[in-house]
Design a protein that fits this description.
homodimer, about 400 residues, nine-stranded mixed beta sheet
């Protein structure tokens, strides 16, 4: 196997980081022209690999190196190129660049199976409010009706975005992959937490992925003049919203030992005017964990708080469920093999769970799937300060290459 | 005096309501093309009054009927045509339509002084974050540097809006009126509270206007991945913001007896993504009252809460003051005269204060000023449900006409 080329890895990650870079970080939302430009640039850089390029009707990209026996399902690896608003250069990109570097490292190897690098579209939920849309659709985990009309205010819908990209949501069935389409799938990713850094391990071998439960709380009070409405006469939806933000926090803290977390990331205030008592507020809530019971308890506590607060404040609170995924177990055999590889390569490793969702969790529906984490500075991600050492990324790539070499034989 | 023409009053208010009408109410922000269209339409309707039309460089409109003695300062009355986002058809419009109806009612009267109807621009703060901009500037209560660059995200600045309207902020000094420019100013307005309705009075005679203190609280925590950041490791700016929303509420409730109110009307969350722990939040706070000491106590309590919460949550909170006006006393002689007129016309009246700010409060700087309130349904305003009975509006116009007749003699 050719050794990992650290310079090229750094160049590709650094080059991608230029697309969408602003003063407050990298903003490269899925399906935007920035997303397209980044992908075009990347394809140009790896032309020398002579991969077979295919894009499905949803805009997912597949880059294939053929194997000796074209009748065998290939091994797959990959990740995503889109970022959150004001995000970083590593979340997603490490896995895509790492997968491409693996293809290069295995160029001289004679392998029975092909290797396919997948770039999933719309992993981040920042543009449409739903995460991992591309992988969810191609693995048959969801139908597009759910997302078709999703849009942030003043933006086009998911359906329109797919169209603008050059795809067609109506024909999404063409893109759905059958179980067994791949021998296996492996995704390398930054940890997005500080466990590897603080415990000084090079590689995280992921066993479970916490899946998000996401819902909106629609709070309806009464809009009134902020100067002429005495305090006792108000039904201020934002005051109720504030109590619910704290209720989400409290409910999650109570389940801290079980690793469950709860976050309100978006607040829509209507009318959102300094001289009007807010009449309506929508909170977007995200609850995650690896233990289904703990997630359930957290949701129950939030719902009870919503009922009690609505009654006390004389407002209504309606819940609108967006996604409710169950935690996903990854493949045990592949995890054991990763441990073996780490021992052989003399890399320190840790068995762990993923708090964040990843495309890999949907790939479990069609093939044995594994994930590797590499450390990132301060556990920070979804933030311009997101950073991973090139040395650590390349150590992950070495393990990833060996996984795919063994599986492709 | 010609009797008030109730049909025409209803037609003018109903006609104006069509400009900016949407499913969620009337949105006619200051200086927009909708604002312009409404004013053009209104001018067309009242052509028969043959008023001298003048617009200053800020877009304030002056419609004058000459008096017998052109050397005497005229009497003035008026209000505004702009609305909040998703507002109603009466706040502002009653006073403009009422003033024009007064000119009609006094057409046959021989009066020494002229009558001037003023349509102030940008009374609502919905577009630029500052209220009563037009009246503030022409009375010399503020210089335009304060507002020039004010803009909501994705909108043009105040300076650009004045330019688009056809004015020129650079030449604002031309628009400033000298003290003594008018004999007096009278503004009729819906109460925007429920006191008149609940106590069954036709006319509110206003003595003091509560002025708003408005400021932003900039809360800075740390943006992090919402799935991979354990609860104990977060510095969630939105959780702190929720505590501050409740602190504003609590501080105002403590001053309830003194009529002070406190409202958070706008919440800006950065990055505002469902999968990111909010790193920065800005709250827009509005505190009002008629007692300076009570306002001071409320602000002190909010500031102490901000300090304590920032320390406890490990975040920073910075205050940015936007406006800090002092409550304004209106003219006592004019109020006494209004009481006399109400008694003569056999109208029930109540002496009261205004919780909301009005253009009238700045007019006190250049001439004796008075205000009349008419009841509005449920005290609701800044809301599509805003409603005032035509009967009540016309009763107010009758008092207004008599005030101006006496003052113009």
């Amino acid at each position: 196997m050719v050794p990992v080329n650290k310079e090229r890895v750094a160049e590709l990650i650094g080059g991608l980081a230029k697309f969408g870079k602003g003063e407050l970080g990298i903003t490269r939302l899925a399906y935007t022209s920035t997303d397209k430009a980044a992908q075009m640039w990347l394809l140009k850089q790896i032309e020398y690999l002579n991969l077979e390029v295919r894009e499905d009707v949803l805009g997912n990209l597949f880059l294939r190196r053929a194997g000796l026996d074209p009748t065998l399902p290939p091994v797959a690896c990959g990740s995503h190129l889109d970022t959150v608003i004001h995000g970083g250069a590593y979340d997603g990109m490490c896995g895509v660049v790492g997968a491409l570097e693996v293809v290069h490292m295995l160029e001289g190897e004679t392998l029975r199976r092909g290797i396919e690098v997948i770039v999933f579209r719309a992993e981040e939920s920042s543009r449409f409010g739903f995460a991992t849309i591309g992988s969810k659709l191609i693995t048959g985990k969801a139908a597009p009706e759910k997302f078709a009309d999703a849009a942030r205010p003043d933006d086009i819908t998911f359906k329109e975005a797919v169209m603008e990209w050059g795809g067609n949501l109506e024909e999404y069935r063409e893109a759905v992959l059958q179980p067994g389409s791949y021998k296996c799938f492996a995704e390398m990713h930054i940890e997005q937490g500080k466990v590897l850094e603080e415990t000084k391990h090079q590689i995280g071998i992921v066993h479970n992925i916490a899946a998000p439960t996401r819902f909106k709380l629609h709070i309806k009070g009464m809009a009134d003049h902020s100067g002429a409405t005495p305090m006792g006469f108000r039904r201020d939806a934002l005051v109720t919203a504030a109590k619910m933000i704290l209720a989400v926090e409290t409910a999650a803290i109570r389940e801290k030992e079980h690793g469950t977390v709860g976050t309100v990331g978006i607040v829509d205030v209507d009318p959102g005017s300094i001289n009007v008592v807010p009449g309506k507020v929508t909170l977007w809530v995200d609850v995650r964990g690896v233990e289904p019971d703990s997630i359930r308890r957290t949701l129950t506590e939030i719902r009870q708080a919503a009922q009690g607060t609505a009654r006390a404040d004389g407002v209504t609170i309606e819940e609108e469920m967006l996604t409710s995924d169950t935690p996903v177990a990854l493949d045990a055999r592949l995890a054991a093999q990763s441990e073996e590889i780490c021992r052989e390569q003399k890399k320190s490793f840790l068995h762990m769970n993923s708090g964040a969702g990843h495309d890999a969790m949907h790939m479990t529906a069609i093939c044995p799937t594994t994930m590797l984490f590499v450390p990132c500075k301060g556990g920070i991600s979804h933030n311009p300060a997101e950073f991973a050492e090139n040395e650590d990324i390349c150590a992950g790539i070495e393990v990833l290459a060996e996984i795919l070499r063994r599986e492709a034989q």
